[in-house]
Each structure stands twice: as C-alpha cells, then as structure tokens.
C-alpha cells in the first residue's frame, strides 16, 4: 500500500509540475487508476468560499423515490427539496491553488450519468473551473423525486416521472454550482465535534444467526443489533471576511428518512434543521448536509421501540431529530468560534477505483430464477407494485450472473479533500457503519468527514457479518460490491487521506 501511495504521489507531483487541469467534463473521462489533483494558478486571497441554494422541487406531482411500491406526491410540499452548493478555492502546502464544488441534494440517490450531465452544464458556464472537481452527494430522503427510470410504471398524465425530472434537476443543480463558484469570497474555516443521537442500527439479530431489518427486539430469541452506531456530529464552520458565520457543513451517520412513507415532497429532518439554524444564526447561513457511513442506520431506536419519544415515522419524530442535530450544533458553536483559519491547506485528490464486484453464486442465481418463475406464473404483476419490484430485482440478479465473467469490478471515483486539519472522503454506497469507523479511526486528520451516496448509486455495501445474517441490505440483489470490495475501499481511502498528512 505504501508503494501504491508513493506512485500516487509521484503522479500527483507530475500533475502539479505540468499545471494539469482537466478540461473534460465528468468522471467518465478519468481512466481507471488515473489521479487528478486540482491545481490552477490564480491570484487573490488564499482561501475563498461561495454558497448557493436552489430548489429542486417540481411544481407538479412527481413520482417519489425510496420505496418498492410507487408513490406520487399528491399533497402540499412539507419542506422543499434543495440543492446546496459549496464552492471552495485555496492553496496546498506548496502554494499551488486547488478547487472544488460540492453539491448536496435532497434526493434518495444520484446516478453517475446525472453527475456527468451537471458537469457538462457547469463546464459551459465556468471555463476557469475543472469540472472533474465537482462532487454531488445526496441526503437519502425518501420523500424526494426519483431520478431512476424503470423502477415504477410510466407516470400518469400530469405526473412528472424520472425522464422528465432528470433534466430539470440537472439544470437546477448546475445553476447552484455556477452561482456558488461566482459568489466566492475570502473566508475562514473552523471545525468542531458535536453529538446527536439520530442514527441507530436497524438490523436485529437472533439466536439462530439470522438478521432482519427492523426486526422485533422483544422476541425471546433476540440477541442484539447487528452493528454499532455513531452519534458523532462532525461540523465544519465557514466564516466570511467580517468573521460572520456563512454556513455549516453537517456530517451525520443517518439518512433523512423519518417520514419515508408519506406522499408529499419533503427534505425530511434537514428542512427544520435549516429553518432553526437560520433562526439562530441568520437568514443567510447555509447548511450543507452530508450523510456519513450509514448503510445499516436509520432514525429509529429498535431497543426502546419508541418508548419515551415521538414516533420516528411521523412529523413530530422528524422535528425531534432536527432538534437533536441543532442542539449538537449549538453545543459545538463556542468551540468553533476559536481556531479559525483563513489560510488552510487545501488539496483535492481524485482516484478511479476498480473494486471487486460481489459475485452472484450459483445458488443465488438459482434462487433468483425460482423467484422469476413464481412471480411470472400468474402473468398479473401490476406495474408499480411490490411484486413488480421483486421481479425487477430477480431479473437483475440473473442478468448479473450471466454477464459477470471471472473478474467483475465496480468502478467508482474517490474524492478526498484536505481542508486544514479536516479530511473529506466520498463513496457512492450506502456504506455500512463499520467501514466508516475503520476509516475514521485510522485517519491522520484531526477530523474526518465521510460522505456516502456521492457521484453514483452504488447500492448497499455490507459487512461479512451482515451477509451471513441475510437481512435486507446484505442480499445479492442489494449489492454491487461486497465485503471484499469494502476492505479495498477502506485501504484506498485511508491511504489517500494519510497521504495528505505525511
């Protein structure tokens, strides 16, 4: 691994020396193993930040993402779904300038094809920005529009489906990125750690070794939860040249899915978080949401089972989770006011990884074919139904089995940023929390922000224990990459982070 990192550093130094700045838009143009590092020579203050927020909420009914059955937003929007862009420009330890635009979206996920389209649109507007340095992440709200075609039936007349929503979304997200870049101003940053009990492990395990998502914990054979949780609230505060707070990056290990079954549009708990932060610190203070490794987490405590707190599938539960996050921010605010850095080391590193794919076994393929036979026997599977989703999943497994060959891989782009003493590292998965703990524990950075569901929809990435238990999230239909690939992701991410802290 040290040798691999030395090669990476050598490649990076070459890019710096030659002033490399990719003119091509999108990660599709990054060949496997090729590294890119932001390095452009510009004048002006050392560290500059820009913010922008646009609504990605359509003004008509839309198919919602996040459930196996179809839902359409038929009620009034509770909290608008937003795209929040954070533009960053600074210098590395050798005085070379680096750049990034991060875009957070209130959606369940985003496809690589959408990220590349956003980059193409941004490239037309920002010739001075290397669009390979743009990263898009999502909050995993289950009350946002779907971007994925073929999941539900064709939308009814007057209802927006993914083929109509996708260009609308890409246009709005690109506008947010462009506005943020053009709004860059001298800035400072500071970091703080808070705590908020928002995410909890959602997998119950039983005496026979089996596991079940949201399984009953009051059974006599319940032996515990499959994994841990992480109540750390990693916070990055951004300040303007007048020392006023301009925005907060909030990194928490929980998807925003309290009201996940509703039929309205909502950013879930990020909506009231934004409202309360702006009430406390000013209407022009942005919140940038990041979901840390949380593939096996949800905002529900399976042990207490709702005793002593609101229903965590309801709006009161959503507001309670927002209150916990804001309380964590308030508690950390005093710490964040000290240690501001207006000239932080800033580096942005990208590496194309080829992770070993999770292979479909003979037994898994046989089971999928059996399921196909069962579901198609009646010839009456209704589009948009639960059975239609199960049929699609079974077909996917069979197709993967027939196409996988002997060395199947999954390609992803790893973005790692250094912002002063803080590391930010992305991945496209619903990453089980164990992997996040392993990366954070081994990171040399004083603070490590992990960002899942970034730049592609990589599905769940479970642990070995999870695969053995067999709960939802760990089955072959749920995964493109398994534990072997998870180990590689950990090693590559740790190496990239620690390479910035030699």
Automatic annotation (TrEMBL):
<protein>
    <recommendedName>
        <fullName>Neutral/alkaline non-lysosomal ceramidase N-terminal domain-containing protein</fullName>
    </recommendedName>
</protein>
<dbReference type="InterPro" id="IPR006311">
    <property type="entry name" value="TAT_signal"/>
</dbReference>
């Amino acid at each position: 691994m040290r040798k691999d990192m030395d090669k990476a550093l050598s490649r990076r130094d070459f890019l710096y020396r030659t002033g490399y700045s990719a003119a091509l838009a999108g990660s599709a143009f990054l060949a496997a193993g090729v590294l890119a590092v932001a390095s452009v020579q510009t004048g002006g203050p050392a560290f500059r930040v820009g913010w922008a927020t646009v609504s990605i909420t359509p003004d008509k009914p839309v198919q919602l993402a996040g459930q196996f059955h179809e839902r359409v937003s038929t009620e009034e929007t509770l909290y608008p779904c937003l795209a929040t862009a954070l533009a960053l420009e600074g210098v590395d330890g050798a005085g070379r300038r680096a750049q990034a635009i991060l875009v957070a979206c209130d959606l369940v996920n985003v496809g690589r094809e959408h990220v590349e389209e956003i980059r193409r649109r941004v490239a037309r507007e920002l010739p001075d920005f290397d669009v390979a340095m743009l990263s898009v992440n999502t909050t995993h709200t289950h009350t946002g529009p779907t971007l994925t075609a073929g999941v539900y039936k064709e939308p009814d007349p007057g209802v927006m489906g993914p083929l109509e929503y996708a260009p609308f979304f890409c246009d709005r997200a690109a506008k947010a990125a462009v506005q943020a870049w053009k709004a860059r101003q001298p800035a400072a940053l500071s970091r703080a750690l808070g705590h908020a009990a928002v995410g909890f492990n959602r997998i119950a395990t039983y005496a026979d070794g089996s596991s079940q998502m949201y399984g009953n914990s009051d059974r006599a054979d319940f032996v515990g939860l499959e994994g841990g949780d992480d109540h750390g609230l990693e916070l990055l505060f951004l300040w303007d040249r007048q020392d006023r707070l301009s925005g907060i990056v909030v990194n928490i290990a929980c998807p925003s899915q309290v009201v996940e079954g509703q039929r309205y549009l909502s950013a879930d708990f990020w909506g009231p978080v934004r409202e309360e932060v702006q009430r406390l610190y000013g209407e022009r203070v942005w919140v940038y949401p990041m979901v840390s490794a949380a593939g096996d987490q949800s905002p529900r405590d399976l042990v207490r089972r709702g005793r002593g707190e609101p229903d965590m599938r309801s709006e009161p539960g959503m507001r309670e989770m927002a209150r916990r996050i804001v309380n964590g921010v308030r508690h950390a605010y005093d710490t964040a006011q000290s240690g501001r850095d207006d000239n932080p080391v800033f580096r942005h590193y990208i590496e194309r990884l080829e992770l070993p794919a999770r292979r479909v076994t003979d037994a898994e393929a046989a089971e999928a074919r059996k399921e196909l036979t069962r579901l198609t026997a009646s010839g009456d599977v209704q589009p948009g139904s639960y059975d239609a989703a199960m049929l699609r999943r079974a077909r996917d497994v069979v197709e993967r089995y027939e196409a996988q060959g002997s060395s199947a891989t999954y390609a992803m782009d790893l973005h790692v940023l250094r912002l002063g003493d803080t590391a930010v590292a992305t991945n496209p998965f619903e990453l089980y929390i164990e992997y996040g703990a392993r990366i954070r524990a081994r990171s040399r950075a004083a603070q490590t922000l992990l960002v899942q569901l970034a730049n592609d929809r990589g599905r769940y990435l479970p642990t070995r224990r999870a695969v053995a238990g067999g709960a939802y999230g760990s089955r072959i239909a749920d995964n493109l990459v398994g534990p072997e690939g998870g180990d590689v992701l950990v090693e590559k991410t740790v190496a990239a982070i620690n390479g910035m802290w030699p």
